[in-house]
Design goal:
21% strand, 181 residues, Spore Coat Polysaccharide Biosynthesis Protein SpsA, Chain A, Glycosyltransferase 2-like domain-containing protein, Nucleotide-diphossugar_trans, two-stranded antiparallel ribbon, alpha/beta, Glyco_trans_2-like, 35% helix
């Protein structure tokens, strides 16, 4: 007899209610404007600064423009320090709709952590931000404007991988890889 293992769909846990929230899938249509993916490996001490800066910026943009919607996905890449605890503290403070944590059981490396975060994102635009705060979130609008300019020059509908900006990825670009995962 053959036994088949069917993996349960990934979920996010809401630390306030302990309810499970079904994880989105890259093949689903975007539900929000931007997903900010933060890969974190042993970033217990630097993560709060990056999250405070990013969330303050995102909240201000959302207050100024009601159509601006966002989520922050913290991907704990198998950390052995308190990164997971710090991340869940932010979920408790901002809700599972705004901040989510993806836990990788072991360290897979930054690239895979980013990929896993993107595969479970809901955003139309996907942005990776380092947990060390090296990139300033205030530059986000400049990147968005550049993407729109380049896309308009090419007649719209261009693949984001054709654009000379490497921080963003598109949902469509990741779909093929998601099918192989």
């Amino acid at each position: 007899t053959h036994r088949f293992h069917v993996e349960a769909p990934p979920v996010f846990e809401d630390p306030n209610s302990f309810n499970s929230v079904t994880s989105p899938d890259i093949r689903n249509p975007a539900e929000i404007y931007i997903s900010l993916i933060i890969p974190a490996y042993n970033e217990e001490h630097r993560l709060p600064g990056a999250l405070d800066e990013a969330l303050n910026y995102l909240q201000q943009r959302a207050a100024d423009d009601k159509s601006f919607t966002y989520e922050v996905l913290i991907v704990d890449d198998g950390s052995s320090d308190g990164t997971k605890r710090v991340a869940f503290d932010y979920v408790k403070r901002y809700t599972v709709e705004k901040v989510r944590v993806v836990l990788l059981g072991r360290n897979h490396g930054k690239g895979e952590a980013i990929r896993k975060g993107m595969l479970h994102s809901r955003g139309e635009l996907l942005l990776m931000l380092d947990a060390d705060g090296a990139t300033k979130i205030d530059d986000l609008e400049k990147l968005e404007n550049q993407i729109h300019v380049v896309s308009a020059k090419k007649g719209g509908g261009t693949r984001i991988s054709d654009v000379e900006i490497s921080v963003f990825g598109s949902r469509a670009h990741l779909e093929e890889k998601a099918l192989a995962t």
